Amino acid sequence: xxxxxxxEGSYPYITGGVSSWIHAIVNQMPEHEFIIFAIGASRSxxxxxxxKLPANVKEVKEMFLDSYLEEEGIWGKRFRLTDVQKQSLQAxxxxxxxxxxxxxxxxxxxxxxxxxxxxxxxxxxxDLLEELCAKxxxxxxxxxxxxxxxxxILPLLLTIREDIPEADMxxxxxxxxxxxxxxxxxxLYNKPFxxxxxxxxxxxxxEEIIKADWVKGYFKDLWIEYFYRLSSCAYEAADQVVxxxxxxxxxxxxxxxxxxxxxxxxxxVNVDDYMSIRAQTTDxxxxxxxxxxxxxxxxxxxxxxxxxxxxxxxPETEFYVMGPYEEDKQYYEECLQLQAALELKDxxxxxxxxxxxxxxxxxxxxxxxxxxxxxxAILEGMAGAKPFVATNVGSCKELLSGMDDGLGxxxxxxxxxxxxxxxxxxxxxxxxxxxxxxxxxxxYERVKRFYRQEDVIKNYRRLYQKVGGEQ
Length: 471
Known about the structure:
about 15% strand; alpha/beta; Rossmann fold; about 475 residues; 13 strands; 18 helices
């Protein structure tokens, strides 16, 4: 079977998390051929793969969301939109109306448009925008509304006009633009479409937009509703939706996904890979690690503030932030500046490393994310029999506390962005080696029973056969 895996902002440009999951799926299913449809943020990423692609990857199709910067349209044309087309575009811009994605796909891929920008410089679009301004934004200058909406939807229009490789099945690993591509492929080729959500994409975008300086306050709702619309496209089109844990399934249903479509397949790790890394250091120092990308959603700044509190109480502590920092260099520089302002010593930003080489040194791990799905970082630490301090996001509490499995706690949970409570939890574990070892044993046993990589592959192999049939 030829499967097109559609990934946004991850594989093969970024390591860890969803990218590691994709790489494992492809590597461990040699009986299938894969096409990678990679959606990147910037054209500067072109060809900059962080993974050696397995032999069964037959093609990598790259597209970049900043390509809209090259688009120029012809001003003032009229394309005679139908009432249904107008309604779908109004829904895309936030109106509470039904949306015909199939009709929108056909319209925007029509040869009557030279490129995506032609529509955004048409009289039809101006009419829609004038109506939107008059109804919802009467005090906002029209030019400001025009350039805001243009930057919002032009990447989507470019995505819809992209060439889609033919395959036997399409599998998007998020909603958003990846979900739209999967929905479009199903529309074009009438092939099965699977959606896997690791985190809830629309909720994550909402959190980012609420805090973003680049979106003015009166446009935040417009952007947020736009991303929820993209998610609804994938939920509607998908033949099967997979999520990682029960709470995510509940959120998907709240957002309009048909409950009958949803399966739960947890993440997993190869437990045997971690058998040899349990040795503790004996130099008297406490070492706290974080398996994490240095990006805002992981909230490294709160982690550094918690480190400063821990260091005052346990001055012999060392901290290791293990993960790539090239993805958002500005944020990384801000983290270094915060570290300097806190006069915080013994923090090591290692960059991307082989985690197994460091894990035996660590006494405990931390995760301070403001949003997560089911973090592979926690599963990796648990497989190494290490306790965790984590924020109460995604399935972190479920992983560390279990679901009435009788195994006991594998770590401590603290509120999001509460550096003092995160620090107090780490200090509690740092002062009690017996507690750390007990929680580490619980962690290892939970992963061994419920979160094994071979089960992930077995479940997806079965799902591919069920949805795609024998090819």
